[in-house]
Amino acid sequence: MIKSLNQLIEAFRKLPGIGQKQAERFAFYILRSSENDVKNFLSSVIEAKKNIKICPVCCSYCEKMPCEICSDDQRDKRTICVVENYTDLLAIERTGKYKGLYHVLLGVISPLDGIHQDNLSIKIFMKRLKGINEALIATNPTVEGDATAIYLAKILQPYNVKVTRLAKGIPSGGNIEYADEITLVNALDGRKEI
């Protein structure tokens, strides 16, 4: 097989969730695309990598510091929704229902994968608790997500913060980023203290 084609396929295979067949489809799509389309695609990747950073306040992605949500005076500064990753933040934002702040953990506690609380942005989150009335823990309803939620609830006990969890509108083992807006609205409405 052609060396540069193999390299392109292998580059796509490194993306999460991409198997051999999907990587091949991407590679052949690139080969069939115009040179201008490929240049635009590459330029978008390079610009995103260069310009998008981690917000020092909430650990979400942003181009300006702090991010648009952290710097929005219209947001409820007394509530923080704690999510696993940026895609979960986007899913909740799309509902239009939640108007507070966010904190992105950058993962979940997963000892089997070597991910412990010190590997997450929990210390940054703990520094943000002054003036916070509610911490909405919106981790995915998986073993790791539940363990992370329980850990956060435990370390928040000494603080005067109401700790809530999304209601069970999201199926166990599911991911927030794949839930539809109605399910997320119901989960936000039915959140309860843990």
Explain this structure.
- By secondary structure, this protein is an alpha/beta fold.
- The chain has two domains: 3-51, RecR Domain 1 (Helicase, Ruva Protein, domain 3); 61-193, 3-Layer(aba) Sandwich (Dna Topoisomerase Vi A Subunit, Chain: A, domain 2).
- The protein contains seven helices and seven strands; from the N terminus they run αααβββαβαβαβαβ.
- It has helices at 3-13, 20-32, 35-51, 86-95, 122-126, 143-156, 181-189; strands spanning 53-54, 61-62, 76-83, 100-104, 134-138, 162-165, 192-193.
- The longest helix is centred in the N-terminal third of the chain and has 17 residues, at 35-51.
- The mean pLDDT is 93.
Offer a concise description of the structure.
With 194 residues, this protein is α/β, with parallel strands linked by helices. The protein has helices spanning 3-13, 20-32, 35-51, 86-95, 122-126, 143-156, 181-189; strands at residues 53-54, 61-62, 76-83, 100-104, 134-138, 162-165, 192-193. Helix 4 links the parallel strand 3 and strand 4.
Task: Annotate the secondary structure layout.
Blueprint: H1 3-13, H2 20-32, H3 35-51, E1 53-54, E2 61-62, E3 76-83, H4 86-95, E4 100-104, H5 122-126, E5 134-138, H6 143-156, E6 162-165, H7 181-189, E7 192-193
Parallel strand pairs: 3-4, 3-5, 5-6
Antiparallel strand pairs: 1-2, 6-7
Helix pairs in contact: 1-2, 4-7
